[in-house]
Amino acid sequence: IPGSKNIIKPESEISFEDIGGQKTAISELKEALDFVINKEKLSKMGIRPIKGILLTGPPGTGKTLLAKAAAKYTNSSFIATSGSEFIEMYAGVGAQRVRNLFETARNLARKENKNSAIIFIDEIDILGAKRGTNESHHEYDQTLNQLLVEMDGIKSDGEINILVIAATNRPDLLDPALLRPGRFDRQVVVDLPDKSGRLQILKIHTKNKPLGEDVNLEAIAENTFGFSGAHLESLCNEAAILAMRDNSDVILQKHFVEAVDKVILGEKSDKKPAE
Ligand code: ATP
């Protein structure tokens, strides 16, 4: 696609087993995806297909991972983009990109010999904010309209089935038109992990790391209240770096403990003063 260098990402091998915690989100998502898988049965029953699923929740909780796992689960091609990719100074460019996105997804599925494609749109609020609230946002309106047109055009008996999965941490900002039946009418909440979710995520991200005998991931999970999956991934990485600096062959508990502080401090220094 011209001018959209970051739109296409390689099809992933992420599956639901690679996602820690999020039990409820995974089962709700699977329930919706089973509709996609059993498409023929549904159309016999006259049930309309699911076209859009909205994942809501704080950053770094695994929304992108869930969308990738959804592609694997449904044997669909996967294409990822972000709302920010559609915002341009020139009128019509955003709308054209939306058209290209759907076309590219269909072409990709054909190329990969699949009969469905999942389009993931991160930060949907950037292009899907309530229309007409600000005149200077006229360009966003056209882009949003085009997205609605494309979604309304998805047919259950189409050659290639398209499912749009969108993510936002501000569902309150979305134009209600997006949430109407036949659009993003399924919402799945992807919250921060609880203690057992954190433990699962820590286990996933230490699977390929050498751990010392004194390592107690349970204690780390206990002491990381409020951490997202992304924080926990970064924590495991930091702990390994600290171990390496110590010339230790294995990661010890003290490295994890120190890494917790580093992640917390890093988070604080990333924050703008206004937040
Ligand atoms: P954002 O809203 O900021 O785009 P997101 O919710 O889409 O975030 P991801 O991109 O899926 O978050 O997660 C970022 C990284 O954090 C992942 O690549 C993974 O390493 C780690 N991660 C996040 N959540 C989980 C989880 N539930 N299980 C395992 N790893 C996770």
UniProtKB/TrEMBL annotation:
It is an enzyme of class 3 (hydrolase). One of its GO terms (biological process) is proteolysis. Residues 49-194 form the AAA+ ATPase domain. GO terms for molecular function: ATP binding; ATP hydrolysis activity; ATP-dependent peptidase activity; metal ion binding; metalloendopeptidase activity. Its cofactor is Zn(2+). Signal peptide: none annotated. Its EC number is 3.6.4.6. Keywords: ATP-binding, Coiled coil, Hydrolase, Membrane, Metal-binding, Metalloprotease, Nucleotide-binding, Protease, Transmembrane, Transmembrane helix, Zinc. Belongs to the AAA ATPase family. In the C-terminal section; belongs to the peptidase M41 family. This is Vesicle-fusing ATPase. It comes from Thermoanaerobacter brockii subsp. finnii (strain ATCC 43586 / DSM 3389 / AKO-1). The lineage of its organism: Bacteria, Bacillati, Bacillota, Clostridia, Thermoanaerobacterales. The chain holds residues 47 to 321 of 490 of the full protein.
